[in-house]
Amino acid sequence: MVVVAPLFLIISADAPFKTLPELIAYGKSKPDGLTFASPGAGSQPHLAGELLFRDAGVKGLNIPFRGDAASYTELLAGRVDATLTALPTALPYIQSGKFTVLGVASAERSALYPQALTLREQGFPNVAAAGWYGFMAPATTPRAIVDKLQAEVLRALAEPGIKDKLTAQGLEVRAGTAAEFGQFIDAEREKWTKLIRDAGLKGE
Q1: Does pLDDT of 4 surpass 90?
Q2: What rounded mean pLDDT belongs to the chain?
Q3: What is the C-alpha separation between 149 and 155, in angstroms, rounded?
Q4: What domains can you pick out in the chain, each with its CATH number?
């Protein structure tokens, strides 16, 4: 794995709730629960939202859109209650006071926006989700070539200039070995497959 893009729980600054507990209480007070925007059914933000609202004991209806821009338009208009998104595209709205961050779906606070509490800190230890990027090769690739590629990627990621550029794009470096990346993928597959099965989610 090379980098991750942590997902942040975002609401409109004009929403009638200002904190995660208030959002959950608001959802429980409504017969139809909460609506949350995502960039598509089965996307990481969709699945993370399903996991959060399931663990919170509140109904959550995913409203899929084609990309973040459409999600943000609906959020600003008050037609959806929340969204989970990576920071770069949302940051201008946060800085201008139009969006409020309720938390970040990561094991630790993000260096990109350290003032945001993790969802784990707020009582949801299972809710960790992020977009992630890494290099892959065919399973038949000789071990020597895999080791060479791994060494070069790790060397590049250790260079301050590259790390700074990635951070500026809202990405956190997660340099690791091929074996660690494989273990991560296996764990992600197991985690999200179970959620999809338990929630009865279907492809659209």
Answers
A1: no
A2: 89
A3: 10
A4: 3-132+183-199 (3.40.190.10)
pLDDT in tens, 64-90: 998 888 999 999 999 999 999 988 889
CA angle 102, 107, 193 (to 5 degrees): 95
3-state secondary structure of 6: strand
AA letter at 92? P
Task: Give the residue carrying structure tokens 């925007």.
Answer: 37
Tell me the two tokens of residue 152: 């070069």
- C-alpha distances (whole Å) from 128 to each of 44, 45, 106, 120, 170 are 10, 11, 5, 8, 17
Rg (CA), the chain: 18
pTM over 0.90? The answer is no
Contact criterion met (CB below 8 Å) for 102 and 82 = yes
**Nearest Cα to Cα of residue 188 among 111, 129, 148:** 129
Q: 3-state SS of 1-52? A: CCEEEEEEEEEECCCCCCCHHHHHHHHHHCCCCEEEEECCCCCHHHHHHHHH
